[in-house]
Description:
- The structure is a single chain.
- The protein has two domains: about 75-415, no CATH class; about 430-630, no CATH class.
- About 55% of the residues lie in helices and about 10% in strands.
- It has 28 helices and 13 strands.
- It is elongated, with a radius of gyration of 28 Å.
Amino acid sequence: MTTMLLGAPGDNMFWLGLLGWYAKSYGIGFAGLLNDTQVFYPLGVNLIYVSGFSLDGFLAIPLIFLGGYVFAYNLISVLSLALSAFTSYLLAYDITRSRLASVLGGIIFGFGVFQMVHALGHFSIFGPFWLPLFLLFLNRTLKQCTLTRAFLTGVFFVLTCLTNGYLAVTATLLLFALAVIYSLQFLLGRWRAGLLCVRSLAWLRRALPSLVAFAAPLVALVPILLYASGNVPSWPISEFEVWSADPIDYVIPIAPCSLFQVLHYPECSIFSAVSRGTLLGQRITAYGNWVEHSLYVGIIPLLLAVYALIRNRDLLRVRYALVGLLFFVFSLGPVLHVAYHRTDIQLPYAFLVTLPLFSAARSVARFGIVPLVCVSLLSSMGLDDWLRRVAGARMSVRRRQMLAFFLVGLTVLEFYPGTYPLTDPQQFSGSAYVWLSHQAGSYAILEYPVTHVDVLSGYHVLVSGKETVSGFVNIPSKALSDYLISVSFFQPDQTGAFSRPIDVPRLAELNIRFILFHKAAYAAAFGEQALVKALAVANMTEGLSYIGDFEGTALYQVMPTQSLGTHDASVDSNATLASLGTLFAKNAYPSSLMGNVNLSATSPIAERTVARLSLNPHTNNDANSEARLRIW
């Protein structure tokens, strides 16, 4: 619980670093908290647009001081899954009044495929336990409107929005959709009764105080909306397509027998081998990320949900069926894909991407959480209907309970994930960062290759205690891009030349004390020859002092001096490898600094760099060309 991190290595390490920022900055004010300056030093990054702002981060702060960062992450993760199941149970029980049927709904939502797969590392997504409470009090408010119910509906709506940016967009759309469907149902009912114009204004006057009570908590979202409105990332329409769902995602599981092991052991079952060989293989390699396509709702829950609609089409069931269908369409993105093949059919989300904030919600498949909660609720109603029907057939209570437990057990087996992966954070610590942690003073480090897709940057700050110029953001702002280019002294430009002047005094002014060369990642990005040149230029640069090699990371110290000027690296970049070899022969450059440059090295940073490139759906065969698009 305190040493191994829940989930496979990846975004869980990113969030571990973010927890370090939450623990460090919770007292500096709201605006300061949203701008993480421990990465991309000294500019920082807007946490909202890296999915790094979450109420769960605040909830983890006391646990961090109690048991450490790994303990806080693991406990919040487990509690989030359990609380999601519990609040979904409360939502179902508020309607059905059947404990067994509600347990089924809780399991479907809390421990379904969507939650368990995102639990691999999406800390703020897989535990949306506020969402069922928002729906619970919204149902109560619509059924019998009171000021207290309306106010609590607003409170849980705000808490849902604060959990994650994607959930904020989802909850906003969900509220609007439910309000429209309820209004249409209400007006249609009054029209059928011939009362459409009778006392309608009086009803609106009675509803106005409740609307005010609901809106009161929404004031808490105003500062976030104002902060989020600046520098909103704009994604091309192709990105929304890549991260959209396919209808088949909801009915075919990625791994029917073991959600994670099937990726390595496709012989796990005949069904998984066939699906992986024909459909899943294409989906992983050519159509987005398998995690975002993990939307399987379960065959048993789906059959029970259909049974609930067949047995009784009351207003509530129709309402949630329509909402689930609407968000199912939203999750398909702007263009329909069928069996993982693109069609030319435009979908409604092609319009939504033109609206503010929605244009930043790239992973549209995450709207699939609403069909999941709708299926969980309708399946609870279906099981309750079935239990009541068999009760009318004079079946004993004990036998009815056994059948209900049997269906619940089958659902658990249907969602069973197999052996859940764990991550040892220590393997990503890096001896260079451990060494830096023992160096006194508050200053920053500059890491090569300079990149904006280093998901381990925050964790390395946690280990070293030093801010870093690198970080993670999908679309950097122009200011950030210009800044990263301006400090990329030891990286080749678009032409492959080292043309950027090396300004050591500027590094000292920025309080950048150390420079790190991650040799495997650098060679993977720019080639071994560029690495040789970069290290040679660094060795000949006045004001840099070589410290040593730390498991493939060359470390230099920026010497604090006022007499240093700029250094023109373009002169050195014109030197041939032969002349650089002469420099090594004369011992002008420590040969131990080079070490063994291996493109397949197991350096965590190299792995993450290569992984980021390989997961890009638009990547081409020129690794260096693609690298230069993402690494300055």
